[in-house]
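Subject: for your reference before the review

Hello V.,

The reviewers asked for a structural picture of the protein, and I figured it would be easier to keep everything in one thread rather than splitting it across files. Below is the amino acid sequence we used in the manuscript, unchanged from the supplementary table.
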Amino acid sequence: MRYVIIRDDDTNASTPIECLETLYRPWLDRGMPINLALIPEVSLSAHRADGRKEQFLFNTNGGTSRTLPIAENNNLVRYLLENRGYHIVQHGLHHDYLEFDRESSPELATRIERGVQRLAEAGFPRAETFVAPYDKISRAAYKLLADRFGIISTGWFERRRLPATWWPKYVLKEWRSASHWRVGHTLLLSHPGCLLSCYRDYRATLPEIISRVNTQPVTVLVNHWWEYFRDSKTDHDFLAFFHEVLDYLAGNLEIKVIPFSALLTKRIELN
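And here is what came back from the structure prediction:
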């Protein structure tokens, strides 16, 4: 049996329910879990490296607040709690640019705990998995996150960013060409890049997705819901492609789509 984890980044208090429903209803109806990396208190001025506004912010013009906690969107919170196929993952705090790629432990600890608090205020159970914005994590952040979460999901690992005490296990991971590894009680999971992206020739990535899924025991596929609804318009071709991926995963009896939490409760070989 091979396992696939769908990680969808950037759900926040401004996210329209209709977008998630359109994208994921076919998955939910088949009992396939979706791991939503949810921003606990989104910054309404969140921007990309080039200074442009993040496209995951919807209908935020005219607001006077700097940030918007997830609990402020009662309808979205109710929708997520009522649809048990959604599994909530903590996605930073504000989604400020590279907010977890810094070395101030007190500041990082405050961001982590405030994020935990914001999710709890909305009624979500404490997240077992953490995803940093842009998949960028500093050495100090790794130490703090490993003390608080059972799983850290990121794109890749660099030795210079890891605590020195982790280096022997990291070297062993590299020698084995392993995608996933463990430090103490924390699982460290990487993913093969954003294969599900409108900014790639996504049709050409389907063979790569199939190859990854069929050759690895556990594959994390990263998705971004807002890419299907850019500029408030539905990209029907990209949406159809995503549902084609669903059909492949659902139709293969040797593949099982799981939440991150299953890796903490079941004996699943990671590599």
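For the response letter, the relevant points are probably these. The mean pLDDT is 94. The chain has eight helices and eleven strands.

Happy to draft the paragraph if you're swamped.

O.
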